[in-house]
Structures are given as C-alpha cells and as structure tokens.
Design brief:
Layout lengths: L31 E6 L14 H8 L14 H5 L2 E5 L7 H14 L3 E6 L5 H12 L2 E6 L19 H7 L3 E9 L7 H9 L2 E4 H13 L5 E7 L21 H9 L4 E8 L10 H20 L1
Parallel strand pairs: 1-2, 1-3, 3-8, 4-5, 4-7, 5-6, 7-8
Bound molecules: manganese (II) ion (MN).
The site of manganese (II) ion (MN) has 7 residues, from loops.
C-alpha cells in the first residue's frame, strides 16, 4: 500500500506564510524576504488592497520549489522566509509611511513586498535610498503615477513617483504599460519634463524587444502595479484599465530582467474584487519570478 508522508505533501490549508515558507525569526534572516504592507487608505477608487498580503499568501500555496524557465530553486538558494506584515496605521498616510520606511531599513535581505496600494512604494524607495544611495526604478503600471496632487493632497497612490523624483532618490526611471484615458495631454508631456522614460502598452505589444533594451543596469528597484495586467487576467484591483498585458506577457517580461534587483513590490491587489483567486495567484507568481531572477543573477 502506498504511504503518504503528511509532512512532505503540500498542506493547502495552511495559509499563514508566502509559499508555505517558514516565518523569518530574525531581521537579518534570508537573502530575500516576503513582506506584507496592508495599507490602502491612499486609493482613489476601489479600496481593498489592505487585504493584498493575505490574498497573495493564499494565492501562493501552489508555488513549487523549482523554476524550470530560469533553472533555479529560488526559495532554497535565497533562503527565503516570510517576515509578516508591517504594522500600519489605518487612515494616517504620513505616519504609516514613516513606519514602513523604518521597518524596511531594518531588514537585511532583499524585500519582496506585497501591497497595499501604490502609496507604499514611496517610503520603500526612501528606505532603499538609505541603504543603497540613488537607485534605478523599473515601474510596470497602466498609470503614470506622477501626478502632483489629488484633491490638493500630495500623498496618494497616484503621486508617489512625483514625490520620489522631487526627493532626488532616483537615477534612471523606466515605466511601462501606460494606457487608459488621461486628465490631459500634459500628462504625456510631463514624463519628458520629469526625465522618466515612459512606454505605453502599445510599445510593449508592438516592440517589446526594443523596450527591454532600454531597461537600466545596476541596482534597480522593481515596482509592479497589478493593473498593468489586463482586468481579464487581474480583475481584483483598485483602478482597472482595459487593454493590458496578459498574465503570460508579464511573467515573460520579468524573466527577461537582467539587472541587480534590490527590492520588488506588487501592489494594488484587491482580493474583495478578485474572482477565483485569479489576481492573487498571478501576483504570487510575479513575486516568484522576481525571486527567481534574483537567484539567477546574484
Ligand atoms: Mn496603476
């Protein structure tokens, strides 16, 4: 009779950590760590991204140790563990940003962060700057996110990139996947004024190889708004835009990354708007590919 080793079989009901990995025991554990930032008070449309870390952990249960496309065992080779969630303060954006920055500075491993809305990327970048000096940013999103303010307020999920540029913490910035209706033609002009290399969804769909040649080398932070993916493949998000990447396309783009990843986030996953965990599973797989790229290139 065949015996089943309960400890070796996948425990699909255990949902407490990313990919069923161990919880980190110390701040300096792991060459890469998973970290949740469950903050969504800076959203302008649908909320719910505060449940992103939980959803992504749940969507990660089926991840297996070996990545056949990059030929790496990311969890083993990076000794990945789950650091838990940052203790944010609901309703207090600036206090929460301070906490996020302080917490991330303390962590030794490369952080792979599950949002949360996109406002969390600003304090993460501040922490990266403290650790590494000026860094490059690769930003996948359907939105520019460099608007100056919303309702006269400087900190929202659509203004973090403008703030980071003003603070002088970024070197090269490449964003891709931009689409959807805009407030005005000025939005397009602003990317040139701000020195951001912006590629639209058409650039990605019609001439991806050329675009990928424009990516920076050296220390680079990757920020992925799940809404860069088409709502057909990622419905659980706060500000969906139709006509986006497929799930296959985004995984292939990440697999092609050929730079040194110093941090990585996937934001704007909103499980209350998700269907059959489709968005959470994709986000978990995006993080898996990011970990695999780090494992391959270190
Ligand atoms: Mn977006």
């Amino acid at each position: 009779m065949r015996q089943i080793d309960a400890l070796k079989s996948p425990r699909f009901t255990q949902i407490s950590t990313f990919a069923r990995l161990p919880l980190c025991q110390k701040l300096d554990e792991g060459e890469a760590v998973f970290l949740g930032v469950p903050f969504d008070d800076a959203t302008t449309y649908r909320p719910g991204a505060r449940f992103g870390p939980t959803g992504i952990r749940q969507g990660s249960r089926l991840l297996r140790p070996y990545n056949q496309f990059l030929d790496v065992y990311p969890f083993d080779s990076l000794n990945v563990c789950d650091m838990g969630d940052v203790n944010i303060i609901p309703g207090y954006i600036e206090d929460t940003m301070k906490i996020i920055e302080e917490e991330i500075v303390k962590i030794r491993g490369v952080p792979f962060i599950a949002g949360g809305d996109h406002s969390i990327t600003l304090p993460i970048l501040r922490a990266m700057y403290k650790k590494h000096g000026k860094i490059n940013l690769v930003h996948l999103d359907s939105h520019y996110d460099f608007w100056d303010s919303y309702w006269g307020k400087k900190y929202t999920h659509g203004t973090w990139l403008r703030r980071a540029l003003e603070e002088g913490i970024l070197n090269e910035v490449v964003q891709m996947g931009i689409r959807g209706s805009l407030y005005s033609r000025d939005d397009v002009e602003d990317s040139k004024k701000l020195g951001v290399k912006s590629f639209t969804i058409r650039d990605l769909k019609y001439r991806l190889k050329e675009v990928l040649k424009e990516l920076p080398s050296g220390k680079t932070y990757v920020s992925i708004d799940i809404d860069v993916v088409d709502p057909a493949f990622a419905p659980g998000t706060g500000t969906p835009e139709v006509g986006g990447l497929t799930s296959f396309e985004i995984l292939e783009i990440i697999r092609s990354f050929d730079f040194s990843i110093i941090g990585f986030d996937v934001v704007e996953v909103s499980p209350p708007y998700d269907v059959s965990e489709i968005t959470s599973m994709l986000a978990a797989n995006i993080i898996y590919e990011g970990l695999s790229v780090l494992a391959k290139h270190r």
